[in-house]
Amino acid sequence: MTKKNIGYPYTYGDQLTPEMACNNRKQAVSYSVLISNIWWHNLGFGEPIQSYPSFSNEPKTVIVRIVETSRVNSINRGGDLGKSGPGPRAKADALKNARKTGGGSIFVQGFTPQRQYGSRPINNKPLSCPNNVKINQEQFYGNQNPGGSSSSMETMSKRLSQEYTEYQQKFNSPPVSKRFDTKNYDQEKFKELSKDPRANKEVFHKTTVDEARAALQSEMEGIVDNPQRIEKPICKSVDLDFKVDGPAPYTHMDVKHPVGSEILRKQNRKVDIKTMAYDMGERIVDQKEKFCELEQGPKSSENILHIVDLAYVPSSEKEIVKEYCLKGAEDAGSSEGIQFLNDNK
Amino acid sequence: MENKNSIENSEEEIRLKIRNQTFRNEIDLDQYIEWNALAGIIFVNCRFEELDLLGKVFGSCDFKDCKFNHLSFRKCQFSNCKFENCQIVNSNITRAEFDDSSFKNSQVIKSDLAASDFRRCEFIETTFKNSNLDRIVARDIKCWKLNQLIKIKKSSSFANILKDINLASSDEG
What is the DSSP string of B72-133? Predict the structure, then answer.
């Protein structure tokens, strides 16, 4: 018995039967839900998708465009979904049909480059400025986490600092997905700690946001108590990142963020990770001595804790960085008062 | 007069060379920043005015005949950079880290270098005037003055050494 064929804008190499059309309609519904979710993520309402491809040699404008579309592609090509949707040929046909007809099929929108709504064009914004568009998530979600925050520390970091966001978009090494993140934190405190304490206006740099993340993580892991930025004008002389309320003997804390060899190479720094880590260890010891006995500064070097956050070091290199950092510190005097974060223990 | 079309690739090293540009805000410089870093760029006769570059990395950048005025290089990391015939004025260079870098015929004037760190660096006929040099730590440094070489293995009083060899001075004496 011959099956009845019906018209459909997609070509799969066969004639389309009513059963196939029915399946396609079901898939269309599921894709519309999926694509809505993707837009929801892109708007910044949901958790970021932790998959950032590397486009090291592309011009920045191209990078921006590709990153925007790559989020869509990274989901639809994911192994979890398998071949549940139309293949490349169907997508190409959908795109072709849309160009012919000017139609706005949800497939076309889903599989072709789209502007990322809710964000300003990257090339037109100053560094380190918080996004002008502030969206109150509670209006959409409600506060799902009383006592905590409705957005994760990672999401909040990206909202505060454009520099931070751009860096993370390029960073594709595995550790970024393993970096400590939580919704159970004090958002106001995080924002306060993320500000550049020396600036006259409210500025959130990538560096200061990273410092704040390390400080709060250290507090949550019980390494320090109540980290606070050092107020002006004391911070101009006692130039350490934070003061802390303990545990004894610690009164002050400083944060370091080493990077992996891939980032070193991209930054065109002519050192390997061993030298970088060794120098860091030496500098930590030097720094512990610098601010002792200043007014409201640490009494001795023992009062300063150095946090070395390995969030930007790939898992395969973390042990090397730790080893050489401690070696550098030991050779310079002492490896006491150094703690590692995000070290995959 | 500024030459706006001065970005070119240096043929011998395939490095971006920027000539005769003035950078007055972070947006101007943003297009050259990748991975929080300015990497391998040669700046010739450029002016940098009132930029906040906190925490930025400068990897193998050359600055020739450049002027820096009211800049924040706070917590910046300079690796394998060269400053030649440069003038850094009224700038914040606190807690900056310089590795394997060199300064030649340059002047640092009315700037704050407190708690900055130099290692494996070279200073050739470079002077520091009316600048805060407190708590600078220096390791493996070479200072040249009038063809005389002074080597410093490690010093936490780098300011005093610079004063002793008349490379650092202040109007207050």
Answer: B-TT-EEES-EEES-EEES-B-TT-EEES-EEES-EEES-B-TT-EEES-EEES-EEES-B-
